[in-house]
Design a protein that fits this description.
The protein has 20 helices and 33 strands. The protein is of the alpha+beta class. The strands form 9 sheets. Strands 2, 3, 4, 5, 6 and 7 form a 6-stranded mixed β-sheet that branches. The radius of gyration is 32 Å and the shape is flat. It holds the Pfam family SAM_1. Its main location: nucleus.
Amino acid sequence: MDCVEEEVDFNWEEYLEETGATAAPHTSFRHVELSLQSSFQPGMKLEVANKGSLDTYWVATIITTCGQLLLLRYCGYGDDRKADFWCDVMTAELHPVGWCAQNNKTLQPPEAIKEKNSDWIEFLIKELTGSRTAPANLLEGPLRGKNTVDLIVVGCILEVRDAFEPNVYWAARVQSNIGGRLCLSYVGLNDPAYDMWMFYLDTRLRPLGWAKENYLSIKPPTGESMKLYLIGLNSEWTEALDEATAKALKSPLPLEVFKDHADLHTHSFRPGMKLEMVSPKEPFHICPVSVTKVYNEYYFQITVDDLTAEATPTCVVCHADSPGILPVQWCLKNGVGLERPQGFESQDFDWADYLKHTGTEAAPDVCFPNVSIQHWNFKDMWLEAVNPLQPSELCVARITQVKGRLLWLRLEGLTKPLPDCIVDVESMNIFPVGWCEANGYPLTHLQKTVCLVNGKYCCSQLFINHRCFSGPYLNKGRIAELPKAVGPGKCAVVLKEILTMLINSAYKPGRVLRELQMVEDPQWNCQEETLKAKYKGKSYRSNMRIVRTADQVSEFCRRVCERLQCCLNLFGPTIVSDKCPENCFSQTKTKYTYYKKRKVGRPSLGENAQDGDMTKPARRRKKRKAIFVQKKRRTSIVGYQTTESPQNESFEEEDRLVLERNPLEWSVSDVVDFITSTDCASLAKIFQEQDIDGQALLLLTLPTVQECMDLKLGPAIKLCHQIERVKVAFYSQFAN
């Protein structure tokens, strides 16, 4: 058997499951959390149509946000939340404060509070004084309802602080926006070689016009980019800037983009001070550096120590919170190697001797207020990280070491491996698992070892024939979602993968695990594998003997199909195109009696049903007040009236929900009852905590569920399936 590294689709969930590895918590990436926030902020005021009173409006306050959903409270209700209501910013009639006056519309309080105040004009003046109104461009036009990060569109112009002169700025154009990670090009320079990648929260970025307002210089890029001046005359740079500015001012970038930018703190550094720093050019080691210039109370310049005569200085502008700056002796105290300065003669570097030799002083600890703060304890966890030598590339990365605020990352999948790179815990060049996929950006990942079929321990592809009869244990709808083939590869690996798929396609995975344990033959050449399953929040595992040689694969597949009472060709080396040789898809559940003479029934999903009872439904509890009815097998869950469904009913029909009450009238407790009755019962507490009633439930979508409930993609999709069932039932029963 030959094994080679081959490029295959990478799936984080599968990789973490296979290796037992752990992803770094999403909440640890503060810059990503901020990028997902709504542009609307709690406390903002706006004008909204009065419920039940046509053509009249009143001022409301934003209580909280959830994606494009806003929870509003009419002004005048004070702390009374009983009349709070959700609305979708994309469909509701919302306007900035002052819109009614400009458009001759009536502004009057809701009927329920009309008598609470004798002078509503005076009330509004007090209410609006000092408050923040929702920006008009977020309530109408192309930017309506967008998250903060989505306000930055391709072609926008920002100002970028020069990398080597902190008092100098120049305009840059957004070439792409990947989840807040911006590719920028200098205005007047159309050369991709000089493009920069920065997260939108980087303190180097400012709105257009910021430098002029703060009496700072506006000049083309300097320092190492001095050669840029040779490309065009200063007059050409100025013309390009004037043209770009004129266009940008017609559709300016909303200032909300910069609302989360961190304020700079003053520093205590003086010229000549020594410290340690992650190398600015090659962030794979830490080296001695010196403060060579202090610009003002916010910025200073650091130069990497190099004692060689022909040295070209490596300089970088820093501020008090710059990542990677460390006090003298930090490496010694943390057991980390310190790179000797170039040209330093002694093989053993000692800070005391070095300071004496250079006649300098160490920067005092007061200059490093955040250095001792340790945020992470996530050694061996996984994330996605920028390749420091190729900023456009993001890689699968593992945290190999954690020291104080610093993380050592091993980037996987690179053609030429790099040493572990060092980043600060709050670096905006690291991202949670799944970030690239969520933003449609390529991720450089590990190469997967694939076995070529040329030996007795390897098998060719095994096919899953979706049209074949699935038997009483397997859900035909889930089977239809599986890939059509698995393999080639090692027999045990391919079979384990396909069995795992079948288990997770079962009505009751635990029952299928037990059935598979019975598939065995003493003459088989087997190896023991652990199979896992999850059902209703519980995990199940079972050891099973799986054949190892190619000549036994076909018989093994046949025995499994027999045990699961499905068509012998449901999976195996035979591909079924139009018509199964067993003629199985013309059979119904009651007629299909290949393996057992009695009627085969689908296992009950009732909580109280015994695994061995295939036909007797669970007894229903006495209902309190039914608000929904699900057309499905009879269960013991409160609020359901169910019937047995024949095998040949469509999956969609089988999953249809029939409601006895309009979900628009559901209270929070009604919503909680519904969620509790589904396979998402573990999430019911979230609905209770966030006061989600029927109206809010119908407004939920996959992005808002992920964002507001902090759910991974799998559970979010599962929950949205249940919400979608309510929506379908609502439209079919009550929309008219």
